[in-house]
């Protein structure tokens, strides 16, 4: 009698109690066990992907699995607890990602999912997030994760993973970033705040970054939050205090300050406005004794609570100072509580709902027609092309000049995240040199093949003693492979080359519809007429 | 009430509590005596007893035959039930992972070879004793700790898929008893 002869429900019971590592081992024993293990969820306490040293990344699961990947000149070194091996001609990150995706492909629930790639190369980060996104996108169900923790410089860390996590299970979200808040990032953060994942969340932690990424109103549904910023402006301090005062949900917020001046300023701001339910911890890094727990402060008189409305620019940029806080208090004390949320005149176009595109969260103060033109959305991009052009038929869709090529999506290689400047030729060359596997140059003397002229020349000189020009064996197969690689690297490019635009009534109707979706207030105006 | 005597032997301590005793006959005709509290751990047996309408008076005159369990397993099961009869009801597991520590006494009870353990599990499954089931599964699960698939194959006596296929093929190639 063996395990195989047991009824399936008993075997399931046995395997349910196993640790993840052992479940994987069990799974590869035989088909019977595999089918049983695949039936039920594996429960992971913690899975982390860490790539914070150049050319090295580590995947660890609970305490039982730890696999490290290290980049070598000609491949990658994989080290498991029990064995280690070298894999030739593979980039370490690709191998690591493949492993991670392999784990995530299994039926699992995760308590804590950590991604720390803040100090790896820019291109690596992009490629990581792109691949994760395309994998998560292909999953039928959303990934059940309770806590998602990410350390990265890119806004992709939020956009490429968070939307694919199960909103019902996601409770905590930790964002540690030093990303720059330009329009694209702002729009992405706004889109994040509209997502179910954000709305169902209970705790938000944020550290780093020059600017607080979330607006006050969007923190109110949380149970708790934590802010850890090196520099906090007065605006931010008052903002955070306002959340605490207004929210009924928030039971506590940790509040870490690193700047020494900030400490006194923060305690000034908070000292007078902490109600008894909310406890704020203001922590000073050097002397540990300076930790203040102000949760037991008495409740302040409501009239004393200063409000800021439309934070003025001078105050924003000033260093923290106690006197200045009083100044804010004095100047802004006239404003009523409600004004912060709904300013009569739109003083903050980048926060006002009316100026916000419902589809992407992008904001713009100008006339709606201009908004549409500056939309980053692709479909609209195309429509502008069509309206601006004199041709109504058969026009190749190519934007005249791309101003920000180092950021433009069209210039970004999807495989490695590298921004290829210049025209189409450069992109083709990039795809061929970096990502194509075909070697179209052949040595005339032997079977050596390469795709590059220079190694070819080195080969002939070192092996055959003289410089022999290589033979070009490019044929249709090779060309097809190039096309394919090109399509992988720059998918937009290919699509666009094939697309012809017919600017007709149907299309205009569609544009108007899109406008109505983005800005419902302007839906009755017809901008695109025949 | 929940404090248990040190002695694991069952029959001795029953006297002081004036227990209701039941008799169970195993498949190889061994007779076991088990107290009411202990027999309640087995859902199958307890259902049987209530359905048969056995009471304190007629319990000992009507032994319960259990065809699917042999004497050796029944002995282990009776020992286990008597040991745990006063255990408090365990709280429902809300988490999907069941975390508990296997008590030393039970570990020793279950330190038998695989063959017997699997037999015991089948018996436990039939008698529907939740706790013993959990413990047995745990013991089997513990064997798998930090093992490679190859090692597991040996531990659990499982053929590889290739061997399995070969076996099946030879079985289907050779003419079966029916034709």
From TrEMBL, chain A:
F-box domain boundaries: 1-47
Domain of life: Eukaryota
GO process annotations (BP): innate immune response
Alphabetical list of InterPro entries matching this protein: DUF38/FTH_CAE_spp, F-box-like_dom_sf, F-box_dom, FB224
Xref: Pfam families: F-box, FTH
PANTHER family assigned: DUF38 DOMAIN-CONTAINING PROTEIN-RELATED, UNCHARACTERIZED C.ELEGANS PROTEIN
Name used for this protein in its record: F-box domain-containing protein
Native species: Caenorhabditis latens
Automatic annotation (TrEMBL), chain B:
Transmembrane feature ranges: none
SKP1 component POZ domain: residues covered: 23-85
Record SUPFAM superfamilies: POZ domain, Skp1 dimerisation domain-like
Keywords: Ubl conjugation pathway
InterPro entries according to UniProt: SKP1, SKP1-like, SKP1-like_dim_sf, SKP1/BTB/POZ_sf, Skp1_comp_dimer, Skp1_comp_POZ
Gene3D superfamilies: Potassium Channel Kv1.1, Chain A
Superkingdom of this protein's organism: Eukaryota
BP-aspect Gene Ontology terms: ubiquitin-dependent protein catabolic process
Annotated Pfam families: Skp1, Skp1_POZ
Domain (SKP1 component dimerisation) ranges: 130-166
Assigned protein family: Belongs to the SKP1 family.
Entry protein name: Skp1-related protein
Originating organism: Caenorhabditis latens
Organismal lineage: Eukaryota, Metazoa, Ecdysozoa, Nematoda, Chromadorea
